[in-house]
Amino acid sequence: MDSAAPYLTGHAAPSASGSVFGPVTGIIHAVGWVITYWYMLVAAALVGWALSEAVVRRLARKASAERMALELVPSRHFDPGLEEIFRRGVQLARASTSMPWWAPRRAKAVQIRLRADGSAPLRYRIEGPAGGERLLSITPFGPHVTVNRARPIVDTPREHVVRAEFILRGKPTAPLREVPLDPDPLQPLIDAVCDLRAELGDLAEIRLDIQRAPKWALRARRLQLMTNARRRERREAQRAARWMRQDAGGVEDSLAWQLQQLLAARQAAGAGRRLVMPPVPRRVEPQEALGKLAEDDHLVRAQLLVLCASNTEGRAQARLAQLQAALDVFGGTSRWTMRGVRVGPWRFGADRWPSRRGFERRWRLGHCRPPRANWVRLDELTGLLKPPTMHCRLPLLAGDLPTFTFGDPELLLQGIYRAPDGRRRLVATHAAETLFEVGVGKAGGGKTERALAQAIGWAHAGGGLMFLDPHRDSWPRALPFLAHETLMPRIALIDLNANGPSPRVSSWNPLGMHHGQVAHEVVEATADAYATALGWDDASAPRALTILTAALALLVAVNEAACQAGRPEDQATIFHVRALLTDPAFRTAALAAVQGRLDEETRSWWQTVFPTLPLDAFAVVLNPIARLAANPVTRAFLGQPAGVYNIRAAMDTRMIVWVCPGGNGPTDRLITALLARDLLRAVRSRRDTPDHRRVPFRPYFDELITLTGAAPETIAAMFEDFRKYRVHVHGMTQLLARLPLPVRLSLVQNASTLATTAGSQSALAPITAEWGDQPGPDVVAALDRFEHYMSLTVRGRRVGPVRITGPHLDDVFADHARPRHAAALERAARATAGAAPLDQLTARATDQLGRVGDFLAQLAPTTPPAGRLQKKGYQ
Fold first, then answer.
1. If 0-12 CB within 10 Å is exposed, 13-18 middle and 19+ buried, where does residue 842 land?
2. Is the dihedral of CA 14, 19, 24, 29 positive or negative?
């Protein structure tokens, strides 16, 4: 039955040849089908690739939507070490994998953005997966770098945009050049964008994407490199063997070789040609062939994209060329070069089809698809893994230091800044945050000229100021630039130099009460001024201070009574102190007239203590007053009952007051001390005005050495207290070291602007020490005239020290000079200050004692007997 089965089924049994050729025939048919219908396979592959790419792109776009951004702001003293930077690189590489499991590899990257758009010299941002924010927020740089959560940047379209992708070329296994940290490796990039102009729409941005490479890609790359290395070794061995055979054949065929063989008697007759042993290919060492790819640790793939834009044709292309040159600094055996092909004047790369669309997608979404050659180790990217350090020279942009606009009350002129591209612009600081300024430098260096330019600009903007100049040189210099009809009513000149054949002098009564002053403040200010100028204190001259204070309190009470009686012209002056201490009749009348105005302690002192004082106790008080009275100018200035000078009213009405005390002798120092202490009193009296209603006022003190010699504690108190009352002091001095210690400490501590011109290195050392000797005294000492180094405060941040050219009035305000109106301005300024002929004021001051005596007699016609006061002989 079994043998008959094939016949019963009606099929022939397969032969041996059919079983062998069946598979072969099937393969042939399959190959034929593929050859015939190849387009179907290609179409299926394309459809599959398109579907997979669409899915990957969708997932990558979804993952990119969950990215975060951090902005790193370094401090001025940021100086990281190599280890700190390397640790930061490790953080970036680790954070690149903080993505969901389904995220495609192109989305698993951390991006470093270096951006310059006019808002800052170079903004340093980190963008990456949202899951890596906690890891990236805590940097190894410590407190020297502030990490802020950054918002997305929205760019306005520019008319001209160029794009570039950079690829590593050269030896693929060689590292980039090791760039030192000093100077900063970012300096070439910052220099490339230092002339960026925001008003022209300039933009430059570099994006470096870091991605941890997959193991299979690294192994494939290593296999390729090893294969190429072995192939090169075999080719070299074959080439060497070929050259050896050619050399050996050439030697044996030469005439010299043949003659040598004939003359060698011992040569074997049957010897043939020499045997040449070809060189064996040497063993390829993995470390040598793979280079930086030999180890897995800290190896990443990098993508470097650059975009430059501008609204002016040609600027974007020039910016890209500058950045390309800057990246050459990192090049060695391996270097960054622009990807693409150049054909004549055209370059086909990231800025043209077909690469442009992919570039824009990666730029917009933050995807990382680096070229195959872009393998780098973290230590090769040291210069790009950190923000700019203290070794980086940053340019000043309009956003860092505002541009001065004439007539703008919110800006204060500082000088002329020369940009790296040669452009010059007037720079300023915000008036509201320029609280105190200090200018140091040798005589003639330009510090006073700069202060004058600043004061004139402030005056034209509607601001009030006081310029205190002991030598009067500043007034004729500023006169032509202030001679405007809109300014004349606001300008007052207090000039105690009394020049000319018929001098005119203003007047001021430090004890006058006709301006509504507070009595005890006037007494305190005048007594403190005397004590400061004469070096009195509670330990060295307690009796003199007591006598002077009691006398001033009594005279101020008299003046208060005169003003209340509507007779301010009958007020006493500082010169009435002598009559009060030496004339019993005048003293008795004064005490009787103001009996109810004195406090019990002062009244008791006059009744019980004063009669016990010896005659020589008054000399120390009367001597400085006698010196003031001996000078006709100071006697005329201080001897008027109702002086015009009122610094508190000048502050509140935005007046421009020029005060020239007249010198630096003992009498002049006493006048200066009185003026300075009165200014301190007037400013502190602003406590009666709400802060928002206090009008800003700026006193300028030229020759601080002279001024502080008269009132050191007063000047120091100004730099400490005036900010609260919106009064901002500007001081100038030749030597900071010659200022009294309290003044020097207050100046440096509170200075919003610290400026210096050239000078000796020893004199400049205290200033440059405040800047960390960057620049050092030797650099500052070599400055030209009108050149300054200064540190400024802008938006609460210190800018500089930066080199600024001091403004020269004839250049900066040339269009505002009115020399033909200078004489009219001087007349108006003296009239506003109430100046009168010197001889007239002197005569009035001489007659004032009689007028005050008559007033006291009328105020108290019946006076108590002064017997007890006269018993001691004070006649």
1. middle
2. positive
Pairing of strands 334-338, 160-170: antiparallel
Q: CA-CA distance, 364 to 356, in Å (whole number)?
A: 12
Distance CA 838, CA 845 (A): 10
Residue indicated by tokens 């200035």: 637
Is the four-CA dihedral 226, 227, 231, 234 of positive or negative sign?
positive
What residue type is 702 in one-letter code?
D
pLDDT reading at 661 higher than 60? yes
Q: Around Cβ 395, how many Cβ atoms within 10 Å? A: 19
Residue 386: band (very low, low, confident or very high) from pLDDT cuts 50, 70, 90: very high
Weakest-pLDDT range from 70-74, 282-286, 756-760: 282-286
Residue with the larger pLDDT of the pair 719 and 312 = 312
Q: Say how far apart CA 328 and CA 350 lie, in whole Å.
A: 19
The residues, ordered by sequence, that sit 6+ positions from 477 with a Cβ below 8 Å of its Cβ are 449, 452, 809
pLDDT digits (tens, 9 = 90+) for 142-179: 888 989 988 888 888 899 999 999 999 888 888 888 88
- Residues 616 and 606: their CA atoms lie apart, in Å, by 17
* pLDDT tens sequence across 502-552: 888 899 999 888 888 888 888 888 888 888 878 787 777 888 888 888 889
Q: Coil, strand or helix: which one is 538?
A: coil
CA distances (Å), origin 759, targets 440, 442, 490, 762, 787? 9, 5, 37, 8, 11
Tokens 């050896």, located at residue: 244
pLDDT at 695: 92
Radius of gyration (Cα) for the chain, nearest Å?
A: 45
Region of 103 on the Ramachandran plot (φ > 0 left; ψ -120 to 50 alpha; else beta): beta
Integer CA distances (angstroms), 440 to 44, 704, 712, 737, 788, in order: 81, 10, 17, 10, 9
Pairing verdict, β 203-212 and 110-116: antiparallel
Average pLDDT over residues 291-304: 84
The pLDDT score that the predictor gives to residue 861 is 55
Helix (H, G, I), strand (E, B) or coil at 625: helix
Residue 730: its H or E element: strand 730-733
Residue carrying structure tokens 């002064």: 866
Q: Map residue 342 onto helix, strand or coil.
A: strand
Determine which of 16-30, 665-679, 761-775 has the lowest per-residue pLDDT on average: 16-30
User: CA–CA separation, 308 vs 610, rounded Å?
Assistant: 85
What are the pLDDT digits (tens) for 311-329? 999 899 999 999 999 999 8
Q: Is the pLDDT of residue 780 over 80?
A: yes
Q: How far is 595 from 864, CA to CA, in rounded Å?
A: 11
Contact 806, 415 (CB under 8 A): yes
The mean predicted confidence, pLDDT, of the chain is 84
Distance of CA 811 to the CA centre of its chain: 26
Nearest CA to 117 among 145, 154, 82, 151? 154
Flag the least confident range among 32-41, 121-130, 456-465, 648-657.
32-41
Tokens of 624: 């400085």
The whole-number average pLDDT for the span 810-826 is: 91
Tokens 């502050």 belong to 651
| Three-state SS letters, 663-689 | CCCHHHHHHHHHHHHHHHHHHHHHHHC
Q: Rounded to an integer, what distance in angstroms lies between the CA atom of residue 547 and that of residue 559?
A: 19
- For residue 188, the Cα-to-chain-centroid distance in whole angstroms is 20
Helix axes 712-721, 666-684, angle to 10 degrees: 20
Is-contact 190 393, C-beta < 8 A?
yes
Q: Match 């941005």 to its residue by tokens.
A: 205
- Alpha carbon distance 297, 319 (integer Å): 36
Q: What is the DSSP letter of 131?
A: G
- 559-569 burial, b at 16+ Cβ within 10 Å, e below that, comes to bbbbbeeebbe
Whole-prediction pTM:
0.77
Pairing of strands 797-805, 836-837: unpaired
